[in-house]
Automatic annotation (TrEMBL):
Residues 1-96 form the Phosphatidylinositol transfer protein N-terminal domain. It comes from Aedes albopictus. This is Phosphatidylinositol transfer protein N-terminal domain-containing protein. PANTHER family: CYTOPLASMIC PHOSPHATIDYLINOSITOL TRANSFER PROTEIN 1, PHOSPHATIDYLINOSITOL TRANSFER PROTEIN. Pfam families: IP_trans (PF02121). InterPro entries: PI_transfer (IPR001666), PI_transfer_N (IPR055261), START-like_dom_sf (IPR023393).
Amino acid sequence: MLTKEYRICMPLTVEEYKIGQLYMIARHSLEQSDAGNGVEVVENKECYDEEHGKGQYTEKRIHLSSRLPYWIQAFCPKVFYIVEKGWNYYPFTITVH
């Protein structure tokens, strides 16, 4: 069996990519948030895992009240959200809803 490997040179380092990834996640969360709706970051801190090493822990509340159809909004409370907990150990990511 013949195995071929191709490598594509990236115009940035792995550290620059990690910073860019965190920035884009934060920017997307900001764009989805308006007037108390969208994404609320509850906790954002560095963490350490013996298996994966140094990483970033983030806990978010994703408010969904305004995204529901009007007939469901009549039954659901205004404080309707989902909690998302995420551990980002680049390139490994663990997310729990």
